[in-house]
Amino acid sequence: MSERHEPDAARELADVEAVFHALAHRSRRHVLLVLHFRGGELTAGQIARRFSCSWPTTSRHLKVLVESGLVTSERRGRERVYRLDRERLAVVTRWTDWFDVAPLKA
Amino acid sequence: MSERHEPDAARELADVEAVFHALAHRSRRHVLLVLHFRGGELTAGQIARRFSCSWPTTSRHLKVLVESGLVTSERRGRERVYRLDRERLAVVTRWTDWFDVAPLKA
DNA sequence: GATTCGTTTAGCATCTTGGCTAAATGAGCT
DNA sequence: AGCTCATTTAGCCAAGATGCTAAACGAATC
Fold it and tell me: Judged by CB atoms within 8 Å, which residues 10-49 of A form the interface with B?
């Protein structure tokens, strides 16, 4: 029965990888906070304007965030809207929760 | 009054930086889990033996973990013991908790 | 004091990341 | 169709991360 869950475990591992990778950079963490406090969605331009680095650089950070699933994007007219997926942060909390379960006694 | 807390905020920022940087690598996350499930402390050798990469490589990962504060180390005889500091993981949860507070209405 | 054991440091090669500018794309407007 | 606006892709370079092997170090042991 537990075998039935192994694919999920593999996916969780990949998710952890992608999410922690995305969170590794200060600007990307910052983008997430900005998105959150501005109501959860903003256009690429609204985001880029808040950052000191160049637009293409921010654009690439956004791409990493999308790949991690922390953010989704949708074309709207000629703009592109980025939306925070707060649910996805559960990948982080599920990982940290391992440390609340009892360790094996060596 | 809030000014009195700014240094703390700066330190928290640096902590977040160091901790998320440490967590960005799969092996380092793995080390933390091994430490936890083996009772919270292990010698460098016990850790290195569980990993496929070379000893010096693992040693460097341990250094990054120590710098982040997630792990502390202590010399014991001719071994070196690494201990998990679970408290330090609160840096992560404090960061994710930002997303549970109300966003500003755009 | 020489040796051995456990571990880290040095030094090197390779890959990835993060930044830039310039060019391309895609959607709406005239 | 041609133009403009919003954004991304391409291409480049500098800096940093990760892996290795070989050498160094420090503490115990002979």
Answer: 16-17, 20-21, 23-24, 26, 29, 32-33, 36-40
The closest alpha carbon to B99, from A48, A58, A71, belongs to: A71
Cβ of residue A45 near strand D, that is under 7 Å? yes
Tell whether A95 is within 8 A of chain B (Cβ): yes
Q: Quote the pTM value.
A: 0.92
Instruction: Name the residue facing A86 among B16, B26, B99 (closest C-beta).
Output: B99
pLDDT tens per residue, range B43-94: 999 999 999 999 999 999 999 999 999 999 999 999 999 999 999 999 999 9
DSSP letters spanning A18-35: HHHHHHTSHHHHHHHHHH
Q: Where are the beta strands (DSSP E) in chain A?
A: 41-43, 71-76, 79-84
Residue A90: CB partners within 8 Å, gap ≥ 6? none
**Sign of the alpha-carbon dihedral angle for B21, B24, B27, B30:** positive
Amino acid sitting at position A104:
L
Q: Do residue B106 and residue A38 have CB atoms under 8 angstroms apart?
A: yes
